[in-house]
Structures are given as structure tokens and as C-alpha cells.
Design a protein that fits this description.
The chain folds into three domains: 1-126 and 332-428, Isopropylmalate Dehydrogenase (3-Layer(aba) Sandwich); 137-156 and 200-328, Isopropylmalate Dehydrogenase, CATH 3.40.718.10; 162-195, no CATH class. 43% of the residues lie in helices and 16% in strands. It has 15 helices and 17 strands. The strands form four sheets. It has an eleven-stranded mixed β-sheet with strand order 4-3-5-15-14-6-7-13-10-12-11, with helices on both faces. A two-stranded antiparallel sheet has the order 1-2. It has a two-stranded antiparallel ribbon with strand order 8-9. A hairpin with a 2-residue loop joins strand 1 (15-17) and strand 2. Helix 1 (38-57) crosses helix 12, helix 6 packs across helix 7 (233-250) and helix 13 (383-398) packs across helix 15. The chain is globular, with a radius of gyration of 23 Å. The relative contact order is 0.16. Bound molecules: NADPH dihydro-nicotinamide-adenine-dinucleotide phosphate, 2-oxoglutaric acid and magnesium ion (MG). NADPH dihydro-nicotinamide-adenine-dinucleotide phosphate binds at residues 37, 100-103, 113, 331-332, 349, 352-355, 364-365, 368, 405.
């Protein structure tokens, strides 16, 4: 199966049958340690996962960790940034977890994170954002934020289809646009780089379906499509249209959309539309609405309680995840998952990056990877272990035992190292 890696001799594979994950008691789970602060964070996090699983199941369940390489560690050991064996491992074992990986700006390798998502077709980047009591926040009411971002993870300007200024390729693209499509709007054609933004109906529909399935399963109140469709009509605007269409077509008995509202308003007036929406809410239907991305970024500060599950495009989702994470106390406790809900493939990872200035200082908050692991345990159906980690982390924060990022904004904090924060959680399990 592997070119260079040796498969673990202990443990069994997670499988998927009829769309349902089959999880053995000793699943093999591949992990990437990550670059920069990745090793510090991983070493802290894995101890928490193992301790929680041991305690929750009295030793009946145990994860067989399988280290796979990517990023600087992979390059130093194998000469490759993302070895084929790593992709094979994630394909074979279905569920994995990773630390952050470095992507240089402006040149060099393209994002390994994006490559992993594309290669495994992990089309939904799921990032829940909630407030933990006691976490210092820059806003007055961080507790009003309780959102789950479903970020499209395979398309958009993020796909990396770009042509650099001054190359024969960019000249070809620009000549094509100007000569074949009569494009006159490229302001400086001789000195432009060009990026392409693919957004498809299929890609939008599978993302919105996943977000709606989640909203229904979790009894959430609304799903908001966040887009910049007034300006980018055939990509972001189409995302909105296709999102409403798939919601109405496939979830007719479970949703009420603002598109429906508008149709009722046009035919019967505002009162009738308001009544229809109120009746849908009373019946527990999910309200599917939309908002333009820039307005959304101000409304999450001014009216966060109005937003619940979010479905958005790749780049918007990237910005929104960091902005919302900051609102509830920072990127240090912002978890995430990259999931293909059809094949069952999933790679869990924090929202933050490698924070290189803190590398090897045993300093940063491991909370984002720990909570990404909680999402992974939930995905496996190991809810008891997941819940025990959340409770223990909440207790550590309550005790004001926190890493530098919280300590600098908290009065009376007991500032601890990355590894010591993990110790505090383990003690509280
Ligand atoms: N999925 C992935 O692997 C991702 C990778 N990246 C990559 O990471 C690299 C660095 O990116 P950069 O833009 O600096 O963003 P980072 O998220 O790595 O760091 C930005 C700032 O966020 C804070 N921060 C990050 N991680 C933690 C943590 N665990 N605990 C507490 N605070 C934290 C720090 O704030 P402060 O300075 O205030 O202490 C840090 O300086 C780039 O190469 C980028 O491409 C970026 C995002 C995701
Ligand atoms: O791949 C990267 O380097 C950055 C990705 C990122 O910021 C994200 O997915 O949130
Ligand atoms: Mg990001």
C-alpha cells in the first residue's frame, strides 16, 4: 500500500458502510505534526486525547496513532513536501488530524493544506465558533456568538489557478480575454497577474446540503448564505441562487427561505410573507437567508445572535473564521474539520496557522487542536471522551490556568506553557 511508510501493525481501519462510519475500538488514525508551533501543540494535544479516551472507556478503546509527514519535516526527511504515502494514509484510514503547515507568500510551494483538501476532496471546512465562559474577548457580549461555519473547501479563487505577471501564460490569458471575449476592463494589461475563480452548482449544492443536514440534525434555527453576489454575480451571486434552490428543492418540508418570503411578498404583500415566515418558525423549520459578505462582517459584531449556521465560499469562509474566532477570544481555541460527508474522509485541523515566531517555545495555546480532536472524537461517535475534554478545558479556563494569549488579557491569570495547559486539562478529566 505504501511506497516508503510501514503500516502500523496494531489497530484496525475505520470503514464506511451505507454512508455510516464503522469505527473499531482501536482505530488507526494518521496525524501530521505540523510546522512551526505544530510539534509543541501536537505533543500537548495527543496526551489529552489519549488520557480522555482511556478514562472514558476504561481502556476498552484506544487510538493507534500513525505519524505521516507533510511540510518541512517531510521535505527534510524525504525531499517531498507532501509525500504520496501521506495521501494514501488519509485515503485508506478515512479519518486523520493535522497541525498547521507553512505556506510562503508570493512564491514557493502552493498551500499543502489546500492540496490535502483538494486531493481528498474534503469539500466542507466546518468551523464551529462558540464562547467558553471566562475567556477574555474584545467584545461586550461574546456569549452571543454561537455559529458553525460551513466553508466551501475545493473551489473559488482559493483553488490556486493563477498566472504570474510577465509570464507567457498570463499574456495568453489576457490576450484571450481581450481578443476573444472583448474584455476591456483589465486596467493594466501589460503588468497584471490573473487569478481564476471557479464556483460550480455541484460544489455549492453539496456544501449547502451538508450545512442543512447539520442544521437539521442539531436543531439549529437558521442557515445563512454569505456571499458577495452583488459584485461577483456569476460566482458568488450564483452561490446564493443555487443555495436557495437546493434548499427549496430537497428540503421543502424542513426549510423556509427568504426567496420564498420574497415571492409571497410580491404576490400577497408583506403581512402575508411575515405570517408565512412566523408559521415556519413556529413549526420548527430552518430559515434559510442570505447576507452580503461585507455587511455580514459588521453584523457579526453588532447582531451576532441573528446568525447560526453559515454556508459560504472558500475565501469568505477563511476571513470569517478568523474574525469570529477573535470575537470569542482568539484563534487559540478555534477548531475545525475538513470533511467529505459522502466518502467519510475527514481531516481535522485548527483554524490558526504555524505562528512561527513561537515555534519550539512551548508557549502557544493548544486549545484549537485539542478542540479539533474533540470534533474528531464526535465524528467517530466517541461522545463521552469528547465531552470530558470540553468539560476539563472549561474547568482549566475557569481556574484561570491559561496560555499567554488568554493570560495577557485576563486579570489574575496563572499563565502556563502549552504543555502545562494540556497537563491542567488532563488533571481535570
Ligand atoms: N491550516 C493551516 O495549516 C494554516 C496554515 N497557515 C500558515 O501559517 C503560517 C503563519 O500564518 P499567520 O498568518 O502568521 O497566522 P497564524 O494563525 O499562524 O498566526 C497569527 C497569530 O495568531 C495567533 N496564534 C496563532 N496560533 C495560536 C495559538 N495556537 N495560540 C495562541 N495564539 C495563536 C498569534 O497571535 P499573537 O501574535 O497575537 O500572539 C499569531 O501571531 C503561514 O505560512 C500560513 O500560510 C495559516 C492558517 C491556516
Ligand atoms: O493553507 C494555508 O497556508 C492557509 C489556509 C488558511 O488560512 C485556512 O484554511 O484557514
Ligand atoms: Mg485561515
Amino acid at each position: 500500500m505504501f511506497e516508503k511508510y510501514t503500516a502500523p501493525t496494531q489497530g484496525e481501519k475505520i470503514a464506511i458502510e451505507n454512508g455510516k462510519l464503522q469505527v473499531p475500538n482501536n482505530p488507526i488514525i494518521p496525524f501530521i505534526e505540523g510546522d512551526g508551533t505544530g510539534p509543541d501543540i501536537w505533543n500537548a494535544s495527543v496526551r489529552v486525547f489519549d488520557a480522555a479516551v482511556q478514562k472514558a472507556y476504561n481502556g476498552e478503546k484506544k487510538i493507534e496513532w500513525f505519524e505521516v509527514l507533510a511540510g518541512e519535516k517531510a521535505f527534510n526527511q524525504t525531499g517531498e513536501w507532501l509525500p504520496n504515502d501521506t495521501l494514501t494514509a488519509f485515503r485508506e484510514y478515512l479519518v486523520g488530524i493535522k497541525g498547521p503547515l507553512t505556506t510562503p507568500v508570493g512564491g514557493g510551494i502552493r498551500s499543502l493544506n489546500v492540496a490535502l483538501r483538494q486531493e481528498l476532496d474534503l469539500f466542507a471546512c466546518v468551523r464551529p465558533v462558540r464562547y467558553f465562559n471566562g475567556v477574555p474577548s474584545p467584545v461586550k457580549h461574546p456569549e452571543l456568538v454561537d455559529m458553525v461555519i460551513f466553508r466551501e473547501n475545493s473551489e473559488d479563487i482559493y483553488a490556486g489557478i493563477e498566472y504570474a505577471e510577465g509570464t507567457p501564460e498570463v499574456k495568453k490569458v489576457i490576450d484571450f480575454l481581450r481578443n476573444e471575449l472583448a474584455v476591456k476592463k483589465i486596467r493594466f494589461p501589460e503588468t497584471s497577474g490573473i487569478g481564476i475563480k471557479p464556483v460550480s452548482k455541484e460544489g455549492t449544492e453539496r456544501l449547502v446540503r451538508s450545512a442543512l443536514d447539520y442544521a437539521i440534525a442539531q436543531n439549529r434555527k437558521s442557515l445563512t448564505l454569505v456571499h458577495k453576489g452583488n459584485i461577483m454575480k456569476f460566482t458568488e451571486g450564483a452561490f446564493k441562487t443555487w443555495g436557495y434552490e437546493v434548499a427549496e428543492r430537497e428540503y421543502a418540508d424542513k426549510v423556509f427561505t427568504w426567496a420564498q418570503y420574497d415571492r409571497i411578498k410580491d404576490a400577497e404583500g408583506t403581512d402575508a410573507a411575515n405570517k408565512a415566515q412566523a408559521a415556519a418558525e413556529a413549526a420548527g423549520k430552518i430559515i434559510v437567508k442570505d447576507v452580503i459578505a461585507d455587511a455580514f462582517l459588521q453584523q457579526i459584531l453588532t447582531r451576532p445572535a441573528e446568525y447560526d449556521v453559515i454556508a459560504t465560499l472558500n475565501l469568505n469562509g477563511d476571513y470569517i473564521s478568523d474574525a469570529l474566532a477573535a470575537q470569542v477570544g482568539g484563534i487559540g481555541i478555534a477548531p475545525g474539520a475538513n470533511i467529505n460527508y459522502v466518502t467519510g474522509h475527514a481531516v481535522f485541523e485548527a483554524t490558526h496557522g504555524t505562528a512561527p515566531k513561537y515555534a519550539n517555545l512551548d508557549k502557544v495555546n493548544p486549545g484549537s487542536v485539542i478542540l479539533s480532536g474533540v470534533m474528531m472524537l464526535e465524528f467517530l461517535g466517541w461522545q463521552e471522551a469528547a465531552d470530558s475534554i470540553v468539560a476539563a478545558l472549561e474547568k482549566a479556563i475557569d481556574q484561570k490556568t491559561v496560555t499567554y494569549d488568554f493570560a495577557r488579557l485576563m486579570e489574575g491569570a496563572n499563565e502556563v506553557k502549552c504543555s502545562e495547559f494540556a497537563d491542567a486539562i488532563i488533571k481535570n478529566l
